[in-house]
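Q: What structure does this chain adopt?
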Amino acid sequence: MAADADKAAKLAAEGQPADGQQYEDMQSAPRFPLHLAASVKGEAGAYSAETQNISANGVLFAMDNDMPIGSSVDFTIMLPGEVMGFVKNVQIDCRGRVVRSFEDRGRRGVGVVIDEYHFERT
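A:
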């Protein structure tokens, strides 16, 4: 029982539901460690960020600002064309929700599930 309470407290501190199921379901897709510049716009303003990893379901950002769990965000990531097999860079415009927020080495780790996305060649 105490172990379950400790796990629930840890999940809550990381901004996850106490049962951890919602976050675990989103982490089922393979993650790719891509470190790319991104701009993230939330209800409180626009911020610079760097992707830490990207999956089909979401993205983990490193940033200097906290974003509340459950808040809606719009973000743009520029993928180098060679990564996508194109000559030109590819801009990905996304809309999503913050599902995780934690401190990591003096910066914020912000996990966002992707609800909508649009690819645009620049």
